[in-house]
Every structure is written in structure tokens, then in C-alpha cells.
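Support request, please re-run this one:
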Amino acid sequence: QVRLVESGGGLVQPGGSLKLSCAASGIIFNNYHMGWYRQAPGKQRELVATVTNGGSTVYADSVKGRFTISRDNAKNTVYLQMNSLKPEDTAVYYCNAEGRTILMSPLSHWGQGTQVTVSS
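Re-run finished. Output below.
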């Protein structure tokens, strides 16, 4: 029922750009904060960027100035524009949706992930 489907990953050279998309269904999209997380081999999952339903954004220090998160509520889609990519950006990137139950408990959904590889 609830689906978050990432796309746009692939192999890119250092300094290149890539744009990820996450299409959501089965949720009232405007009620959710959206985010991108990533996990590199042997490392813990980390936050990349988030955007609230009001449009406020937060970025990890490692991507600030290079990545841009945005959302298109009419398309139920969140994007991650990645510029000036570095080998350290290589990871599986996951889309996340965070809302609230009627009792204000956190309610989270995750996509299946898309691989981003930055290599010469």
C-alpha cells in the first residue's frame, strides 16, 4: 500500500552530477517530512538532507553547498540534486517519509534504496 520508490542512481565520475527521485504513494504526501539517507559499506546509515512539509531544509555538513533537496507536492515526489560528487558520496541512498499517528507517535516509511557510485 505505502510505497517509496527511488530512482536515478548510477555510476558517475568525480565532479559529476546526479539527480535522485523518490515517488511516494499510499500516503498523504503533504503531511510528511521527507528525507534522504545514505549508507556506505561498513558505515552507519546517515542523514543526507531533509525537507519539511513547509519547505524548510536541513543538510549534513558533508553535503552542504553541493546537494539540494526539494519536493513537488503535486507529483508526490522528493528530489535530491547532487553536484560536485566525490568518491566519499558512494553509498546506497534511501528515501524516507516521516509523519505522525493520531497519538503523535512517529510513523516512518522507507524506500528500497538506489546505488550511487562515484569513481574514475
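DSSP finds no helices and eleven strands in the chain. The two ends are 40 Å apart (CA to CA).
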